[in-house]
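Forwarding these from the shared drive since the link keeps breaking.
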Amino acid sequence: MSCGKQQGLGILARRKIEAEIIKPIYDILVRELGKARAQEMIGEAIEQAAVRAGQEFAAKEPQKANLRSFVELQYLWEKDNALDVQVIDSDGQQYNYDVTRCRYAEMYHEMGLGEIGHLLSCARDDKFIVGYAPDVELTRTTTIMSGERRCDFRYRVKAGSGK
């Protein structure tokens, strides 16, 4: 069993706390540097943090971090009914699912952070997997955060990679 079955805050609760801290920082950055530069800076910081988080989760895996162990961690992002998920395929080579309700998106919009919600949440996904299992890649073409009906997550082990 993977190390992921720990108690404590779910990711949704963590993201809310982080957003409460980031919001006033973002507001100051916008005032001082403009919206585009503020978003660039927040985005860069969040992406770096996501890679580090992936690496930290991978380091705790008793076996090598891979797509299967990643799937076992998904409950953390779904905790507190944060996501309504419809799994399409799940095996050692692919993990495909659609999110049909995203409380992350709802929360960021309610907090007045809808314009950077994609930076605070969505942009983390492909960076987390880079840190966690670099032989796995994420393709996503739609997100609820951007106003679409669903988020289409398509994780695949890269061609030429082992299981």
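-- next protein --
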Amino acid sequence: MIVCGVELSSNEAIICLLKFEDGIFHMPDCRTTRIQCADPDKSEDLKHFQKTFAKLVEDYKVDQVVIRARLKKGKFAGGANGFKLEGVLQVTPHLNVSLMTSSEQKQNLKHYGLPISFSETGLKKFQEPAFMAAFAYIAGQYEW
């Protein structure tokens, strides 16, 4: 199973690929760490973002896209552009997309914690939320 964890931040999707096979996790190389949408207010730019993301998912044979859910209101609420990008990804044909709340993520990680520290993964610090979403999704799919 290959999972693409996604953290939406302003006008970009920060991504991390995580593969789980035969009880082993590993991170396949990926041509990019983020996909940007030049202007989420323009439908052409949203379509380009959608097409670019769908092509990445197709090329790497991603089974599941997991978006780290953001709060809709309050001090730490997500911005409007991020919600637009989230909606575009959710309605992209042939993509299996799910949202993961922070409470779901904590629950899944409670049963199966990280086998190594994030700093040992070799990923960039800004990819940590995407990695954690992907890892928590996989951890929640299996009985350990």
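The radius of gyration is 15 Å. The beta strands are 2-9, 12-21, 24-26, 34-36, 64-68, 97-100.

- D.
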